[in-house]
């Protein structure tokens, strides 16, 4: 079977991954905000006698190399030998989208244009003459709807044809005689070195004129680099004399002029565009005064829904585990095996699994925020605050909100940031955002102590996370990360009705990740906790004389000043370093079924078992402080590992550990003593 290698390229948020998923049957991350895909992904599809290798790329606006994900795409388009590049273009935004197209044409890439979002363009009364557009570009144009199968067959046929009969897409690109003449002079010199001919010489010439760092470095390695730079200088001087502009500006102007001419011939737009739904809604949502209150209300709703809808399901699962534990205890009697299954496994792992409904709902809510387009608005609204207070731009707010789901993808999402310094700083504050792993801890404690204000208490923790993140970022920006942040225009995609299938798949996969975690790390920790609670032989399970009790007793003075100096919270925090769910796992295996026969925590009932046990250890004030500490202290191993991988050094994860520990301690201390002064207990 012959293989055809197809790259999917285009601006951010135009539907590349949607098309990729549709073609390959895979489920990669789709959402309505620019910059989701940060790494290239590969999938396959059989078509007739061919095997298509499809590569999904991060979106980019130009083939210049700024941020990491842009470099990934550019390297693929420029250096890898793909057979066909499918350029996905948003029909509602042709001017901007075609800017990247012109640059791929400069490369002479074997291009196909897949025109997406046609329904939205029709709604706006755009009349696009596909044949004309294709003729003028000299590139096939296919209308598709990435979300369903519209145009899919035609696209595949076109890919097959293009692979067998490649075109040079640079042919119809015209940049005016003056520029063309000088580019060809420069090309003449470049072409003398065979090694520089991997990409087309006109592209290399253009990139040199644009002062592109990577290409300039590459050319410096050529034996004839002096000759090339002498010519480059000459051309640059000449262009400056003629146009009184930098070569970069001149080239950009020509690209836009080409696009303008093209669209004049092939697209008819209504004289007055009626305000779209998005524009109408954004009047309120991104309003200067209303923006932040609306953001807060939406977040509050998210937590309310998560908790109120989640609670009955949670009780159901909890009941199931309790029943299972009782049956096992009754069948096996008081044996080591029964203690292992009931305290160790059902307590440690089951105690965490009861929170699945809450966690699934949280991921569902975040998926809806992402897919509707609200996430980008939240970042836009926070941009001013972030800029003024922290010196970071709103772009870093997107990874922060994703951090409400899980820190690992959130840390990866920082790749879209241009400056390494801003990127690392954002990574360091993402773990202050309250991820779903903290939810079991909150659920347990609010049920035991704050039955009437569950939603409000949890909401306050989420907001505290954001505030602490902003304060820590501001301090770090003034010390470790000095420097100005370049301004950035936040792109606001049109609102879209979230696709049910997309949202469900997204949620399902995230939830599966949680279940997998329960079966691996949390299980392993549960077994260790059980062993340590049962040793030395003959000791009462989970008593202070057990190994775990002794460890806790040694560690507990550290937490005394924060109000929870008992040994059990200390070991729970210690084990929770691995993953925060283990904090609850540890409690539930220490106070599990066998202890009082009352069952594992029924977090929503606030009565039996674990809840009673924690009521004996905490007061409402110390319970709140404990939740704050869990929120802010050391991120889980997975998050630290991701920071190491993304920064390529252990330095940052270690700094992270120090920053979070100190912050958690200080903030908890202030809240505890402040609370005491205010008369709380
Ligand atoms: N209605 C409709 N929505 C679409 C279509 N194609 C994509 N979308 C939506 O557009 C948004 C962006 O889609 P993605 O596939 O994630 O875009 P992308 O180009 O991969 O974006 P990045 O990875 O950020 O560069 C999502 O909300 C999709 O559901 C389509 O054909 N019709
Ligand atoms: Mg994508």
UniProtKB/TrEMBL annotation:
NCBIfam families: feoB. CDD domains: FeoB. Keywords: Cell inner membrane, Cell membrane, GTP-binding, Ion transport, Iron, Iron transport, Magnesium, Membrane, Metal-binding, Nucleotide-binding, Transmembrane, Transmembrane helix, Transport. The gene is feoB. This is Ferrous iron transport protein B. GO terms for cellular component: plasma membrane. Pfam families: FeoB_C (PF07664), FeoB_Cyto (PF17910), FeoB_N (PF02421), Gate (PF07670). Gene3D superfamilies: 1.10.287.1770, P-loop containing nucleotide triphosphate hydrolases. It comes from Methanobrevibacter filiformis.
């Amino acid at each position: 079977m012959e293989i055809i290698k197809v790259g999917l390229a285009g601006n951010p948020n135009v539907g590349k991954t949607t098309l990729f998923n549709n073609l390959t049957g895979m489920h990669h991350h789709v959402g309505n905000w620019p910059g989701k895909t940060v790494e290239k992904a590969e999938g396959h599809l059989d078509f007739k006698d061919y095997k298509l290798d499809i590569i999904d790329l991060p979106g980019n606006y130009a083939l210049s190399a700024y941020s990491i994900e842009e470099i990934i795409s550019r390297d693929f388009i420029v250096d890898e030998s793909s057979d066909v590049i499918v350029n996905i273009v948003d029909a509602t935004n042709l001017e901007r989208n075609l800017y990247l197209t012109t640059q791929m044409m400069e490369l002479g890439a074997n291009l196909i244009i897949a025109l997406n979002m046609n329904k939205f363009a029709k709604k706006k009364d755009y009349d696009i003459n596909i044949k004309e557009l294709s003729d003028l570009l000299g590139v096939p144009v296919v209308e598709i709807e990435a979300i369903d199968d519209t145009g899919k067959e035609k696209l595949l046929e076109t890919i097959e044809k293009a692979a067998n009969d490649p075109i040079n897409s640079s042919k119809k690109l015209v940049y005016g005689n003056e520029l063309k003449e000088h580019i060809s002079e420069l090309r003449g010199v470049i072409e003398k070195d065979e090694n520089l001919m991997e990409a087309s010489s006109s592209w290399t010439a253009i990139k040199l004129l644009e002062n592109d760092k990577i290409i300039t470095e590459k050319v410096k390695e050529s034996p004839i680099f002096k000759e090339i730079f002498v010519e480059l200088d000459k051309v640059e001087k000449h262009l400056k004399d003629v146009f009184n502009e930098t070569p970069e500006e001149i080239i950009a102007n020509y690209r836009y002029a080409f696009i303008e001419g093209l669209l004049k011939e092939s697209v008819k737009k209504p004289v007055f565009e009626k305000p779209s739904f998005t524009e109408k809604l954004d009047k309120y949502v991104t309003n200067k005064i209303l923006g932040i209150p609306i953001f807060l209300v939406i977040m509050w709703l998210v937590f309310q829904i998560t908790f109120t809808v989640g609670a009955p399901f949670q009780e159901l699962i909890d009941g199931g585990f309790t029943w299972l534990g009782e049956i096992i205890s009754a069948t096996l009697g008081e044996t080591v095996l029964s203690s292992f299954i009931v305290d160790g496994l059902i307590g440690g792992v089951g105690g965490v699994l009861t929170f699945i409904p809450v966690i699934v709902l949280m991921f569902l809510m975040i998926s809806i925020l992402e897919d509707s387009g609200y996430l980008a608005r939240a970042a836009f609204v926070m941009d001013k605050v972030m800029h003024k207070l922290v010196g970071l731009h709103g772009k870093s707010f997107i990874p922060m909100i994703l951090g409400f789901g899980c820190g690992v993808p959130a840390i990866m999402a920082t790749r879209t940031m241009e400056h390494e310094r801003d990127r690392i700083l954002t990574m360091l504050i993402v773990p202050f955002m309250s991820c779903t792993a903290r939810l079991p801890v909150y659920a347990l404690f609010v049920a035991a102590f704050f039955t009437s204000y569950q939603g409000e208490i949890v909401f306050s923790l989420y907001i505290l996370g954001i505030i602490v993140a902003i304060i820590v970022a501001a301090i770090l920006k003034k010390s470790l990360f000095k420097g100005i942040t370049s301004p950035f225009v936040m792109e606001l995609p049109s609102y879209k009705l979230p696709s049910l299938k997309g949202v469900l798949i997204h949620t399902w996969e995230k939830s599966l990740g949680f279940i997998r975690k329960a079966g691996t790390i949390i299980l392993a920790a549960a077994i260790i906790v059980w062993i340590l609670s049962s040793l030395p032989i003959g000791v009462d399970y989970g008593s202070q004389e057990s190994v775990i009790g002794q460890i806790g007793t040694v560690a507990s003075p550290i937490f005394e000043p924060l109000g929870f100096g008992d040994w059990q919270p200390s070991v729970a925090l210690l084990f929770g370093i691995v993953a925060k769910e283990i904090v609850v796992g540890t409690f539930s295996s220490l106070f599990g079924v066998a202890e009082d026969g009352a069952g594992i925590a029924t977090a929503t009932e606030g009565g039996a078992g674990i809840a009673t046990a924690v009521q004996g250890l905490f007061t409402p004030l110390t319970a709140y402080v404990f939740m704050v500490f869990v929120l802010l202290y050391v991120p889980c191993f997975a998050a630290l590992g991701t920071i190491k991988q993304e920064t390529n050094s252990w330095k940052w994860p270690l700094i992270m550990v120090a920053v979070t520990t100190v912050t958690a301690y200080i903030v908890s201390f202030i809240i505890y003593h402040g609370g005491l002064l205010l008369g709380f207990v």
